[in-house]
Amino acid sequence: MKLLVTGGAGFIGSAVVRLAVARGHEVVNLDALTYAACLDSLATVEGSPLYQFEQADIRDRAALDRIFSAHQPDLVMHLAAESHVDRSIDGPGDFIETNITGTFNMLEAARAYWSRAGRPEGFRFHHISTDEVFGSLPADPEVLFTEATAYDPRSPYSASKAASDHLVRAWGETYGLPVVLTNCSNNYGPYHFPEKLIPVIILNALAGKPLPIYGDGSNIRDWLYVEDHADALLLVAEKGLTGRSYNIGGENERSNLELVQSLCAILDRKRPKAEGSYADQISFVIDRPGHDARYAIDPSRIRDELGWRPSVTVEEGLERTVDWYLNNAAWWQPLLARQGVGQRLGVKA
Ligand SMILES: NC(=O)c1ccc[n+]([C@@H]2O[C@H](COP(=O)([O-])OP(=O)(O)OC[C@H]3O[C@@H](n4cnc5c(N)ncnc54)[C@H](O)[C@@H]3O)[C@@H](O)[C@H]2O)c1
């Protein structure tokens, strides 16, 4: 099968590309190479005859038409997006243009290609989205996001993703484009850009810097190991029902403070400090404006209908992630020089 993956040089997209190629699929990676992209994350597939790269911007409709015609994909996995909530607070414009207009362009280019090809049965447009479109949950552990939860986005990032989800559903209903959607919880794992929470904590700990925790650290997220997510995405792309959406979660709720304490305990074992614990470096900083209190996914639809469950517990996943950062400084070191990395973002309100 030939997949057109957008955003394949990003964190989740690169995991999808690596796994798809390992499973024998042909992959065309379409990516604009923004600040968040890293082609080094694709070093293991770069030389494969199954892999091709197209540098293109999803805001450029003509480029998309050319790429669809040139590669004739069997299905599309659309991950390209501006993805960092803090950056969306500082500069929402890019989020509107890429996440909304860019998705509109992808839908139109896919629709034109699919119509020209005689509406082939198996074609699928898989839109990858976030649980942040559902807003914020109360603390009650019985209350979870399901596919029927009403949309209630609260940041420029989640609002732009919610808009893109609505466009995808509308193209399915109005034009019959075979679409499928997924909304997933917070991902973590190898190749995570070093401005996101988990890499920031690991790298600041090793550098002897403060470990910043927004507010009081009580915000809860449902952590999903990125390789498990890539596996779920390929399953939905191939077997998910057209017109349906699937929530994907890790069944691993942790408060930010608990998560950081776990990372410190792992580092204390693997790379002990001369004196004291890495937890001594924890520093509470001013909260993110509009910081959602809790996200947690009810994954029963993907489990019951497609038989998917996460394979990695958060304890195992964090161990693997810490090991990966300890052993791969050559990957993350150059990224520390990129614009905004290492600075506090998203405090304008
Ligand atoms: N990271 C998470 O925890 C998470 C959780 C839920 C959903 N998601 C969604 O998954 C997708 C991938 O997330 P990620 O964390 O890998 O993001 P990322 O920021 O690591 O990667 C995004 C990729 O998209 C590319 N891109 C950005 N703008 C583009 C444009 N205009 N044209 C072409 N390419 C462009 C970037 O160059 C980058 O390679 C996003 O749609 C995001 O909303 C992410």
UniProtKB/TrEMBL annotation:
Source organism, top-level taxon: Bacteria
SUPFAM superfamilies from the UniProt entry: NAD(P)-binding Rossmann-fold domains
Tell me what organism the protein belongs to.
Pseudogemmobacter faecipullorum
> Sorted alphabetically, which PANTHER family does this protein's record hold?
DTDP-D-GLUCOSE 4,6-DEHYDRATASE-RELATED (PTHR43000)
Q: What is this protein called?
A: dTDP-glucose 4,6-dehydratase
Instruction: Please state the Enzyme Commission number of this protein.
Output: 4.2.1.46
Q: Which residues form the NAD(P)-binding domain?
A: 4-321
Which family is this protein grouped under?
Answer: Belongs to the NAD(P)-dependent epimerase/dehydratase family. dTDP-glucose dehydratase subfamily.
Q: Which Pfam families match?
A: GDP_Man_Dehyd (PF16363)
Reaction(s) catalysed by this chain's protein: dTDP-alpha-D-glucose = dTDP-4-dehydro-6-deoxy-alpha-D-glucose + H2O
Q: Which PROSITE patterns does the entry mention?
A: ADH_SHORT
Cofactor(s) the protein needs: NAD(+)
